[in-house]
Amino acid sequence: MTLVEPASSITDFALGILALMIAGRLRPKETTDAHWRWFFVWIGIAGLWGGFHHGFIVGHETAAAFSWPAISLIVAIAISYLLAASVNTVLGKGHGHPFLAVRAISLAVFFSLVVSGNATVITLMLTEDLAMALVIGLWLHAWQKDQPAVGLVLAAIVASGLAAALKASGLQFNMGGWEFDPNSLYHVAQMPGLLLLLAAIQRRADATGGQTLRRGANVAAPV
Questions:
Q1: For the residues of 185-212, what is the DSSP string, one character each?
Q2: pTM (two decimals)
Q3: Taking the domains of the chain in order of start, what are their residue ranges?
Q4: Other C-beta atoms lying within 10 Å of the C-beta of residue 214
């Protein structure tokens, strides 16, 4: 069976598989917040669905009109988990309720637009850019507080931004008979950001675990 957009399909499948593999690596001992794992799970689902969309659905106008908004909604859910994980990691569980309230409102608005058939690239950008602005603000706050692994998280965010800029540039080329359009290049460019985020979560878990052990040793030490 021939793929309609082979490069975009294969790279989206690869992105989805990578995200699910990362989710599988995040065992409870490596993260105290399950929101991180669910972020990667939803990104993985979006990637696999996107691969199927580019490979088989995009050639059918009616089906594509339903498929793309659904993928956009899945991405919005993933970013919601990213924000929740950032709130809990940077501020601590039980804090940052205003951030989550703003996100709940923006997600509800986008969901209503999807259901009503009025979701567009612009509405997706408006709602998701707001969420990402909150995420960036949280990690800049963490950097000011000298929290561990912040540099890796910010590097992951920069990598994601560069991927978006690459997509917006309209760059495309042919290789091996496949046309690598902005979508396929965007998928590939997102992968380093996911790996950087995994490294940040693991390094932060190691640092937090070390602090916990030191506090336990101090308590147990004779006075």
A1: HHHHHHHHHHHHHHHHHHHHHHHHHHHH
A2: 0.88
A3: 6-203
A4: 10
